[in-house]
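Comment thread on ticket #2218

A.B. wrote:
> Attaching the input chain for the structure job we discussed in standup.
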Amino acid sequence: MTESAADKDDRSRLTKSLTLAGMSLGYAVVQLDVTIVNTALSSIGKALGGGVPELQWVVTVYTIAFAALILTAGALGDRVGAKKTFMAGFAIFTVASLACALAPTPVILIAARALQGIGAAILVPNSLALLNHAYPNEKERGRAVGTWAAGASLALMAGPFVGGGLIAIVGWRSIFFVNLPIGLAGLWLTWRWAKETTPSPYREFDLVGQTIAIGALGCLAATIIEGGTSGWGNSWVVAGFIVSAILIALFLLREQHAEQPMLPLGLFKRRLFSQMSLAGLLVNVPFYGLIFVLSLYFQQVNDLSPFETGLAFLPMMAAVFPANLLAARAAQRFGALPVIAAGALIAAAGCIGLLGIGRGTSYWAMLVQFLAMGSGLGLLVPPLTSTLLGSVEKARSGVAAGVLNSARQTGSVLGVALFGSFVGQINAFVTGAREALVVSTTLLVGAAITTTVRGWSTTE
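C.D. wrote:
> Ran it. Output below, let me know if you need it in another format.
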């Protein structure tokens, strides 16, 4: 008995939907660990020891591995197939989560978090590559990316609330055990429903460039963290910045002359691609940096419990979800670039409204600002991602997704390192938090300006 056209259409829709579900779980578990871990920072510090610098490393080492390896992970998916690579990333992330849950010391926890970052680096670009493959139609792809981002937003939203509750009832180790069932479900969905992409066997790996990239990003983050404790004029801090600059220059030189670079600099000749990559970096510095700072502010300055801290973040994270869903429709009506710029300016307005915070500031005085920050971010991410993917040919979608997410995660590394250095001394925490808000506002306005360069009507 032959399958009817209607049955084929139903099967195609089911395959696409369940592929989207698997990809969304992959992105969601990556985002979940951002808010869940930040909520647990104070509890981790009390249980394992260490001050703000050690807690910065618990967060930062994850994003360093994520940012530095994501380009190679995207290229790996292009070479051997995005499905195989995505499943390997999910397995690594799940095993690393178990190691985090069992970690007896800060050093082992930091090492396991680095392994988690490797898994995250593999998951994100290959999930986008598989979505790009499953949804060839631009409008369908835009809606799928919006759903993919919304799933991550749900994870961001649930992270503080669920994490705070788990910490209060079971303890901080439970926040990593949560990833295990998510990982198993994502692996099954991908294995059963996702279609493999066409491998490019001649795609080589730029191991020299990869090594330099890890060194440059790690050195820069370590230098910024050390600057917050030892002072920006310290000789070791100055030397760290010099070494970081040299490594960045060497990386760009290497990528310019490599036969198959991990970062194809030629992509940046495309104006839309460059705009979206830069905007992604500028937006992530304030968002993830402020999550780190505000988590410590609620617990160490205003004496909130982890569960109360989770509740405090809930409105911000909840605002991201409906904004994600609205973004695709808004982009179709007004154009992607004005929607991205509007989202950045809304988030900047939220940061400005928080400049008056101090010890004992009422949470209700911060609520509207939190809603603005969350909705602004939720509005800009889907059109930014879809626009960047649409600016390159499908054969390079893995690398393009890797560049965008590398830029965004580099922003996360710099945000946590820089803002953490501002608030490194508890007696000057509020002043440092205000400095972080000023920098955040400046960067978000910069992202809006970057997006609008040469007008909104371009189709390049």
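A.B. wrote:
> Thanks. Noting for the ticket: The chain has 15 helices and no strands.
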